[in-house]
Design brief:
single chain, Rossmann fold, CBS-domain, six-stranded mixed beta sheet, four-stranded antiparallel beta sheet, about 20% strand, globular
Length: about 350
């Protein structure tokens, strides 16, 4: 399966002599702060990653980290100062303005943070807007818009006006508009951050359920690590214009690349993220495998592991799809992940204490 989207050494510099600034950054002759003092802003610095078909790739970072600028380069709304963006093997940075508009209208859709609905158009007309731009006949675009609205839980609201909808419902219309075009790639820029917490979680649930059905390729921008870990197949963490780590939620939680990433993860509820495959010990002694009376798979949630460990005197065995033992999870291993959160993530030598209490309660 070929890569759907590829970003290669992307830079975006605003201000004077951007090309010269890129070269200085490449040669380590200046950093971001030095350039800023000279009136030049390096918004994105040497960003490279790939996104596979059907993957939700989340880019997260604090305000000013460059994540939204990076997203805008992916569909040509912002031209890179240097580097390339390839979509299905096509170099978007080499396209003319007309060719880029064609790609954006048919292959790449964007879901904005603030809904961006037309108040003078009905819900159906808003959902069908991208198809109207494509020149799709009215009957077909209304049919496809209604199908997309139904997928987003808005069947029956087609004739309503945007101001008759709640914020969450308006965001569903924005999502339906992106889905109606049947674009191969969805770009979502802080799409749920303007919503109340309960509605935001509902929208996250909606996206997860839609993805199970549609298998879209999605790049999702957020500043919320819990949202990133809930939605992302992989996560790219940005700081000061640079991508400092790319990995699964479990990779980032257990093996943070540096102290900056670790500081993001310190308040995350690990029990909601970790699985048996992430915490198991792969070196299995024969007696451990023979004595295990509780078994799990690599996908077994952490909380279920705790319950199993509380019932068993021996380590929990982790099996592959054919029933072979691929690892074990000793109780002390679980204690290490639950207990001393201030130590380096992934170590398992914490003293008995709070972790044992959690296992006992399980």
């Amino acid at each position: 399966m070929s890569t759907r989207l590829e970003a290669e050494h992307l830079y975006k510099v605003f201000g004077r002599r951007p090309g010269q600034a890129v070269e200085r950054l490449r040669q380590n002759e200046a950093d971001r702060e030095e350039l800023r003092a000279q009136g030049t802003t390096a918004a994105v610095i040497d960003a490279s990653f790939t996104v596979e078909p059907g993957e939700i790739f989340v880019v997260m970072g604090l305000s000013g980290s460059g994540k939204s600028t990076l997203l805008r380069m992916l569909n040509g709304l912002s031209e890179p100062t240097a580097g390339q963006v390839r979509f299905d093997g096509q170099d978007l940075t080499a396209l003319s303005d007309r060719e880029l508009r064609e790609v954006r209208s048919r292959k790449i859709s964007m879901v904005f943070q603030h809904f961006a609905l037309f108040p003078h158009r009905s819900v159906r007309e808003n959902a069908a807007y991208g198809l109207e731009v494509q020149g799709v006949p009215r009957a077909e675009r209304e049919r496809r818009a209604d199908e997309a609205l139904a997928l987003c839980g808005l069947a029956g609201w087609e004739r309503s006006w945007p101001d008759e909808l709640s914020g969450g419902m308006q965001q569903r219309v924005g999502l339906a508009r992106a889905l109606a075009t049947d674009a191969d790639l969805l770009l979502m820029d802080e799409s749920f951050s303007a919503l109340d917490p309960l509605i935001r979680r509902d929208m996250q649930d909606q996206l997860v359920e839609l993805q199970k059905k549609l298998k879209k390729t999605i790049v999702f921008i957020t500043h919320d690590l819990n949202e990133a870990m809930r939605l992302g197949d992989r996560i790219a963490v940005m700081r000061d214009g640079r991508i400092v780590q790319i990995g699964t939620a479990q990779d980032i939680l257990i093996r943070p690349a540096n102290d900056y990433v670790a500081s993001f993860t310190q308040d995350v509820d690990r029990s909601r993220v970790l699985t048996a495959g992430a915490v198991m010990e792969q070196e299995v002694r024969g007696d451990e495998a023979d004595c295990a009376c509780e078994t799990a798979t690599a996908q077994t949630p952490f909380t279920d592991l705790c319950a199993m460990s509380a019932r068993a005197a021996h380590p929990v065995a982790v099996l592959d799809g054919e029933g072979a033992v691929i690892g074990v999870v000793p109780r002390q291993r679980l204690v290490g992940f639950i207990g001393d959160e201030e130590r380096a993530p992934g170590t398992c030598d914490s003293p008995r204490g709070e972790g044992e209490k959690v296992l006992a309660r399980a």
